[in-house]
Every structure is written in structure tokens, then in C-alpha cells.
Task: inverse folding
């Protein structure tokens, strides 16, 4: 009975969402946020909130379009460390506090070789308290004028 009720509620939610907007809403759309960079550029970001999603992050991806990224949303502010184990592309990693202010940037963060054990990959960040971490293609933070102290919006 509970499964039927849950399925009915989910179906109603998707129906209402699709009727309320001009374009169809998909499940993938529910996990995306548009992040506005300092120069006005919009980065469409997958949002990661679950521990397993955060651990996988950008692993195994061959490329990342310039207008795409990944936004990690941590449950509470902390000094959060990231590393690039099994990541195949250079990334700009941007840490933001709860008010969306940039507190730290690791530009052009290199991938950690697949042959390197995870425990041997360099760690990045964790020097400032943050609640959000934005990962975009290497070099894009500078291209879009992102600097410590600026606010991003979403």
C-alpha cells in the first residue's frame, strides 16, 4: 500500500511540475542548479548532496563542457578536503561559505593518475570553512573572473 501511495504522489508531483512550466521537467532537471559566475556566465551544475554522489563526483569523466559543472552541497559548514582520484580532466575547485562567498580556489587542479593509489593522491582545499564546493573545467574560474571574496548566485 505504501509503495502505491509513494508512486502516486511521485507521479502527481511530476505531472504538476510539467504543467507549471513551459518546458518539460525531467528527473535530471531536479538535480541541477544554474550558478551565475562573476562575469554573468551561467554554469549548469549537477548537484551532489549524498555521500556516495560526492565521493564519485567527477571520476571517470572524459570531458566537461565549458558551461557545465558540479555543485557539492554539504550538510553543514566544515573544512572540506577534495582530491582528484580517478578524475581524468583538470578542474577548478571553488569552495564557498554558506552565503555563497568564495573562500578558496584551487585553479587547474590536475587529475590524479589512475595508477596512483587513492591514498597517494594530493589533497586540495580544507583551509577555510565552506558549505559548497563548485567544480568546473580547469581555467574557467579565471576566465569568468572568480576570486576569493566574490559571491556566486544560484
Result:
Amino acid at each position: 500500500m505504501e509503495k502505491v501511495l509513494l508512486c502516486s504522489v511521485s507521479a502527481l508531483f511530476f505531472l504538476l511540475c510539467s504543467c507549471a512550466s513551459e518546458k518539460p521537467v525531467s528527473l535530471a532537471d531536479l538535480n541541477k542548479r544554474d550558478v551565475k559566475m562573476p562575469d554573468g556566465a551561467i554554469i549548469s551544475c549537477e548537484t551532489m548532496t549524498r555521500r556516495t554522489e560526492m565521493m564519485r563526483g567527477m571520476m571517470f569523466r572524459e570531458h566537461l563542457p565549458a558551461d557545465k559543472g558540479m555543485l557539492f552541497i554539504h550538510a553543514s559548514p566544515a573544512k572540506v578536503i577534495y582530491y582528484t582520484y580517478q578524475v581524468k580532466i583538470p578542474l577548478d575547485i571553488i569552495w564557498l561559505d554558506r552565503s555563497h562567498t568564495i573562500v578558496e580556489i584551487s585553479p587547474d587542479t590536475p587529475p590524479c593518475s589512475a595508477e596512483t593509489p587513492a591514498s597517494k593522491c594530493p589533497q586540495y582545499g580544507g583551509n577555510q570553512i565552506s558549505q559548497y564546493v563548485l567544480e568546473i573545467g580547469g581555467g574557467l574560474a579565471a576566465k569568468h573572473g572568480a576570486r576569493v571574496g566574490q559571491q556566486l548566485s544560484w
